[in-house]
Amino acid sequence: MQPPAAAVLGIAPHSGWAAAVLLAGTPAAPRVILRERLELSDARLPGSKQPYHELAGLPLAQAQTQLARFCTSAGGLAEGALRALLERAQAAGARHRLVPQA
């Protein structure tokens, strides 16, 4: 049995979604293991895709409350999408380890 391949995950955020690419191999010969779109906004929360535009005209307290809802929703969606992506990566033979934030 072949040992799991070391891999690196790159994420590029956009409005309401992020592109995720998982690469393995070497710098000279990289291999794309996964390439996915991660949804980070909930269509059931109007304005969550473009919160600045949604909240710009609201009173500060109301904008803060709604922004907290958007952040909680986006955080949950991101966590679920990353967990699912890591499961698919593992199934594809890539190993992962979490690197603490600085």
The end-to-end distance, rounded to whole angstroms, is 35 Å
Number of strands: 4
Helicity range of the residues? Answer: 25-40%
Structural class: alpha+beta
Beta-strand share of residues: 25-35%
User: What is the global morphology?
Assistant: elongated
Tell me the layout of helices and strands.
Elements: E1 5-13, E2 17-25, E3 30-39, H1 51-55, H2 60-91, E4 94-95
Structure description:
This protein is an alpha+beta fold and 102 residues long. It has one domain (5-95). It has two helices and four strands. It has helices at residues 51-55, 60-91; strands at residues 5-13, 17-25, 30-39, 94-95. It has a four-stranded mixed sheet with strand order 3-2-1-4, covered by helices on one side. Strand 1 (5-13) and strand 2 form a beta hairpin. The longest helix is centred in the C-terminal third of the chain and has 32 residues, at 60-91. The protein is elongated. The mean pLDDT is 88.
List keywords for this structure.
102 residues, single chain, four-stranded mixed sheet, alpha+beta, 29% strand
Q: What does this entry show, briefly?
A:
By secondary structure, this protein is α+β, with helices and mostly antiparallel strands. The protein is built from two helices and four strands.
